[in-house]
Amino acid sequence: MKDCLQILVADDDFEDRTIMSECFKDLGHSNAIKFVEDGSELLTYLDNKTDEIVTLIVLDLNMPRLNGTETLRMLKSIPGYSNIPVIIFSTSVNEIERKNCMALGAREYVTKAGKWDEYLDTCRRLYSISQEPLQPMVA
Question: 50, exposed or middle or buried, with CB in 10 Å at 0-12, 13-18, 19+?
């Protein structure tokens, strides 16, 4: 039986992954999220998943091996993954980076919160987006 929900997060920062994990636990959705440490691991996970449907991808920008921008570019070029919404979740407030990510197909660009309540609000938003039906792939 396939799980109908999976938020896949690529972030190399242990503390950020822990905070996000705790937020989803507090919201009662700890089983809805899976973490990898960079874009390369994310693509490997997607290629090898067998029982999960990924309905949202969250990318940090600054990661080793394959950063968020490179990963986003690749995801949007792969037919089986191009319809999965991607949220950039980064500490960077660089407007050029934000515009570039949006042009590459990111659904949103969210700056990482500094306060717990803001993190909870962001996680609520991520969960809500993950519940939306996937858009059909464009031919």
Answer: exposed
CA atoms of 56 and 86, how far apart (whole Å)? 6
Residue 139 lies in a domain: no
Q: Mean pLDDT of residues grouped by 10 in the chain (139 residues)?
A: 69 93 92 93 87 88 90 92 93 90 95 89 92 68
Tokens of 68: 């968020």
* pLDDT score, position 139: 46
Distance, CA of 33 to chain centre:
10
Distance separating alpha carbons of residues 30 and 112, to the nearest angstrom: 19
Question: Is the full-model pTM beyond 0.85?
Answer: yes
2 lies in some domain: no
Cα–Cα nearest to 105, from 130, 76, 78? 76
Provide the residue range defining the domain that includes 79: 7-131
Match 């991808």 to its residue by tokens.
Answer: 57
Domain membership flag for residue 138: no
